[in-house]
Amino acid sequence: MGAKEKKAMKKSLKKASAQQKAIVASREDKDAEFLPLEGGPGKKIVESAEPVNKSTVLYIGHIPHGFYEEQMEGFFKQFGTIKRLRIARNRKTGKSKHYGYLEFTNPEVAKVVADEMNNYLLFEHNLQIQLVPPEKVHPKLWKRVNRSIEPVNLVEVARRRHNKERTLQEHQKMVQAILKRDEKRRKRIKEAGIDYECPELVGKIQPKAKKIKFTDDQD
């Protein structure tokens, strides 16, 4: 064997040993990612833990007509204990604004409801349910939760407004408004080409207020 052949053999042996060392090192790195069964050095596996949910309040939107407090409580209490419930309503009419808030005692139950019941089809409406973080819950959110809103009787309000006693100036102002509307109506009828004579309004001319003078002879 010549000198050149010996040098080539040494180079090939060195190259093979280097490759073998690299393979062993890579295997050790891979094995280090797992904890050994019988003890020994090893790296701890870092698990990505999900953030713990602490929200118990749910926002519910797209609430259909007829699905009010009693119906909502009967529907959602199958998931868990309900602490508080509120549907936003108009203060004057008492009608629903089609959104509200629901609070469970258990945050896990609230998360399950938010995940499973979002976009749930109810009476041709898709319920929009979302968790409300504790830091975003308004301090006055549950202020009127136990108060019942009595709707304003608009018919009674209109009746009182119509039947109230008016002064002469108020009466004249009301008559002028009626005459103005009547004039516009007559103009529209004439522009439409309709031959019709509207009757005159009764009470168009109001008598002036009389001043009563008392003499010394009258007691």
From TrEMBL:
<feature type="domain" description="RRM">
    <location>
        <begin position="56"/>
        <end position="134"/>
    </location>
</feature>
<dbReference type="GO" id="GO:0005730">
    <property type="term" value="C:nucleolus"/>
</dbReference>
<keyword id="KW-0694">RNA-binding</keyword>
<dbReference type="GO" id="GO:0003723">
    <property type="term" value="F:RNA binding"/>
</dbReference>
<dbReference type="InterPro" id="IPR012677">
    <property type="entry name" value="Nucleotide-bd_a/b_plait_sf"/>
</dbReference>
<dbReference type="InterPro" id="IPR035979">
    <property type="entry name" value="RBD_domain_sf"/>
</dbReference>
<keyword id="KW-0539">Nucleus</keyword>
<dbReference type="InterPro" id="IPR000504">
    <property type="entry name" value="RRM_dom"/>
</dbReference>
<dbReference type="Pfam" id="PF00076">
    <property type="entry name" value="RRM_1"/>
</dbReference>
<protein>
    <recommendedName>
        <fullName>RRM domain-containing protein</fullName>
    </recommendedName>
</protein>
